[in-house]
Amino acid sequence: MQSLKQENFYLFIAEAIEDVQTHLVVCIGLTFKADHIEIGTFCVASAQNQGIGKHVLKYAEKMAIEHCPTLNHYEMWVLDSRTELIQYYARCGYAKKQHTEPYPIHANVGQPLIDLQLQQMSKSVLSSIS
């Protein structure tokens, strides 16, 4: 995976131990750009609807500011067909932007069965400091 080799990319994971078995619960990736951070590789496994994602997102935002205090906004790209995710991120303070991009077929991440676009969402760093 090319992202893991980039110096400006950090991947955070959380695991849970149940009956001596370790399970991946959540992961989130941060890619540092010139004036913002791109949040991606965000996945909550079987523990959805328990608030874990919201805590991990807040943690990632906090880590981004600590690592690079000059950031002015967070950015992410969400599949436009995932309206529930877009609504979730809106509740977390992210706003849909006008900009969309085509689904990245060239990235070898699969061939969609429907027409998909990536929806840009953004959040000011100032709005997350509390």
Description:
The protein is α+β, with helices and mostly antiparallel strands. It has helices at residues 52-67, 83-91, 125-128, and strands at residues 9-18, 21-32, 36-44, 73-79, 95-102, 117-124. Strand 2 (21-32) and strand 3 form a beta hairpin. Strands 1-2-3-4-6-5 form a 6-stranded mixed beta sheet. Helices cover 22% and strands 42% of the residues. The chain has 3 helices and 6 strands. The mean pLDDT is 86. It is globular.
Write the layout of secondary structure elements.
Layout: E1 9-18, E2 21-32, E3 36-44, H1 52-67, E4 73-79, H2 83-91, E5 95-102, E6 117-124, H3 125-128
Write a concise synopsis of the structure shown.
The protein is α+β, with helices and mostly antiparallel strands and 130 residues long.
Count the strands? 6
- The N- to C-terminal Cα distance equals 35 Å
List the helices and strands in order. Answer: EEEHEHEEH
What shape does the CA trace take?
A: globular
Give the helix level as a range of percent: 10-25%
Secondary structure tally, helices: 3
Mean pLDDT: 86
Strand order of the largest sheet: 1-2-3-4-6-5
Largest sheet: 6 strands, mixed
Q: Determine the strand fraction and express it as a percent band.
A: 35-45%
Low-confidence stretches: none
SS class: alpha+beta
Q: Could you tell me the radius of gyration in angstroms?
A: 15 Å
